[in-house]
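Customer ticket, subject: "Can you confirm the structure for WD40 repeat-like protein?"

Message body: Hello, I'm evaluating your service for our small team and ran a test protein. I'd like someone to confirm that this is what the system normally returns, since I don't have a reference to compare against.
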Amino acid sequence: MSSNNPHHDPATGDEEQDMVDLDEVAEEIAAENEDGDIDMSDPEDDEHEEVQLVNDSVAYFDTHKDSIFAIAQHPTNPNIIATGGSEGDADDAPGKGYVLVIPQELDQRDDGPVLPPSYAADPSAAARELASQKENIQIQPVFSIDGHTDSINALAFTLPNGDFLVSGGLDGRLRAYKVDASKPSFTFLGESQEVPEINWLAPCPNTDYPNSVALGASDGSVWVYTIDPSDTATPLQIVQTYFLHTTSCTAGAWTSDGSLLATVDEDSSLYVWDVWGLAAAKGLAGDNGQTVVSLTGQDQRFEVEGGLYSVAIEPRGGYLAVGGAGGAIRIVGLPRITDQTAGSAPQAGSKAGKAKGKAAGGKAAGGEAQAGQILASLEVQSDSIESLSFAPASAPIPLLAAGSVDGSISVFDPSRQFNLRRNIQGAHEEFSVVKLEWVKQPQGTGSGAAAQQQWLLTSCGMDGVVRRWNLQGATPSQHAPNAAVAGLEKEWRGHRGDGEGGGVLGFVQGNDGKRIVTAGDDGLALVFQV
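Agent reply: Thanks for trying us out. I re-ran your input and got the following:
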């Protein structure tokens, strides 16, 4: 190593008359060690730690210059992916996003087990063909998402058909693009800037109100927009605005029928909004005429000191879960707005719904009397709950999975008083779990495959790894000390990992979970074949 304070030996006589080149002096001095002695060892003998780089991806996208904060997948063409982040790591770097299309050649590519090349008639040719088949494909963007002066923090395709792409930024801008998925092509429609920063976007699944999207802002406000391209002056039309949150609105989720919108904030408040007036029409809206559920930290039974940061709604709409600081989870009943919620919520205080710990009484499952009731208070994990996910409606048991900053994943069984079904300690080692999502059951799936798929859960974390878990057969209160004994079915590596700067900040997995596309803190989007 070069010394920061080179030591020069003065000339001891007139024997050396030639001038010595300064570069040569530097090279000689570089051989000295910290004690000023000459290092006589051969540089080739130095032992260097060998770093094993593992990349399980079949394709990659590396155009981003900094972290990818957001990722979204088109609802009808899952090969269309949008990613969002910033143009660089400078404080004044503008937001930047891209749209990419997964190459069709991956659809025909078989990454399953194959016979060794030595089994072929021409082993060398078979080896070359195998290598070409496994070659990692670089994906180029088909469209750039510009116009944000700060990082793009959220992306969403509208439902039900993905007619529009919306981007939300830390600059408070909401920008909309018309999508032609057949080409694909994207056309900018317009923007709205009403808030300081946009924290999240959630497209509404209600087919009676298509192309609507909700957002939560850093000032606590909640906005619902509908996109109407026929109005060229104001294509982004404000449907509702809500201002009951007093601190940053951290997360939001729609019921699966899009009738209600639930939001949470850093001050431990939960509001469930009657966006379309469906609850009011049935006399179920609160005194403020805006909400069907209003819970704040002033209610000590509900309070989560440190705030709430995640929310998920049971697919049949009977109840929801919110997660926050200290590993706290609250289960809250919802009113029955449509037929889909009938009988879907466990009764508070009943054998099917009494939580381990605190519970509240109620009457009709998912009915008016149970709306706003705290059905359960769960505290298994030791740090903030960053992600919550309910198993899809097709599953016989609507299991609830919770991912924590402490690196663990806990799975609860609502049919057994919300008992702990499995606690996977160190699911992502000591690094935070960022996102959880159950694999959906695609239409037309055979009964055998469907029975297997309903137990599959995908997770990503700041360790840079994506993992797939099979929770079939997990017994109540089963604790798993590590991933090896917790039902880990498969994992995929390729991101840098090791915490900040290398984790996976999000992923999409389509309707069948057979292909996973990630958003990396290292600026990479990787494609993994399951």
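A couple of notes from the result: Confidence is low (pLDDT under 50) at residues 1-33, 45-51, 349-366. The radius of gyration is 27 Å. Feel free to reply with more questions.
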